[in-house]
Design a protein that fits this description.
Layout (H helix, E strand, L loop, with lengths): L1 H51 L4 H18 L4 H6 L3 H11 L1 H6 L1 H5 L2 H10 L1 E5 L4 E3 L7 E7 L2 E4 L5 E5 L4 E2 L1 H6 L6 E4 L3 E7 H10 L1 H15 L1
Antiparallel strand pairs: 1-8, 2-7, 3-6, 3-8, 4-5, 4-7
Bound molecules: adenosine-3',5'-cyclic-monophosphate.
Adenosine-3',5'-cyclic-monophosphate binds next to strand 5 and helix 8.
Length: 226
């Protein structure tokens, strides 16, 4: 009898475990499908819009490529909408986890206190730019600092000469903000880029509250000027 009970127990545990796994897999597949559906309906809407307005074919191809990049890079997630539903303390932790790689790449963040990093990273807004997109031109008024999470940009002098190429973990746009002057150079994306934007108001606040960060930004700007 004990052997039979044991065998029954093994069967019951086995069957429930199997059911549990199957159930989880079904939920997962269903979720992935729902996400995909949402993405495809967005793409469909864009296609209909472009047809209606007779957008030229090459431009349509660019829009399509952008959507593909969004889908492949981040599964169509809008970081901001997801994050907006979280309470601030959790949001800060999730943002840090999301950007662990970036934080590793920006020398200042690596050495800074966790609390400063949390506050600064929370002030960033994500932005995707497409190849060839101009972030701003030399002489434009300045409204933000940009940090590159992924991708490459060229810094181009007013004369048209490329004076620097910046990549992951680099930032740009600090000079005009610090000096309250127009942009020194044009910045153009050479590639798809995931950027973080720190708008002027947030930038000023961050500099005021985090003197170490202010010194780091000022030192970089000074080095670039010389
Ligand atoms: P800003 O003047 O706001 O806009 C152009 C940006 O290009 C500038 O800030 C810097 O961030 C960046 N930049 C200008 N000169 C150099 C350089 N020599 N090396 C790297 N980046 C630069």
């Amino acid at each position: 009898l004990p052997q039979m009970m044991y065998a029954c127990l093994v069967i019951i545990v086995g069957v429930s475990f199997f059911g549990f796994i199957l159930g989880n897999m079904a939920t997962l597949l269903f979720r992935m499908d729902a996400e995909r559906e949402r993405h495809l309906s967005r793409v469909d809407r864009a296609e209909a819009f472009m047809r209606h307005h007779r957008i030229p074919k090459p431009l349509r191809a660019k829009v399509r490529a952008y959507y593909r990049y969004l889908w492949e890079g981040r599964h169509g997630y809008e970081d901001r909408t997801v994050l907006a539903t979280l309470p601030p303390s959790l949001r800060a932790k999730v943002v840090l986890a999301l950007h662990a790689e970036l934080i590793d790449r920006v020398p200042f963040f690596r050495g800074a206190e966790r609390q400063s990093v949390e506050a600064i990273v929370l002030a960033f807004k994500p932005r995707v730019v497409v190849p060839g997109e101009i972030l701003f031109r030399a002489g434009d008024p300045a409204d933000a600092l940009y940090v590159i999470q992924r991708g490459v940009v060229d810094v181009i002098a007013a004369s048209g000469v490329v004076i620097a190429t910046l990549g992951e973990g680099d930032f740009f746009g600090e000079m005009a903000l610090l000096d309250h002057a127009p942009r020194n150079a044009t910045v153009r994306a050479t590639d798809y880029c995931d950027l973080f934007v720190l708008e002027r108001e947030a930038f000023d606040l961050v500099l005021e509250r985090h003197p170490d960060f202010a010194r780091y930004i000022q030192a970089t700007a000074a080095a670039r000027k010389s």
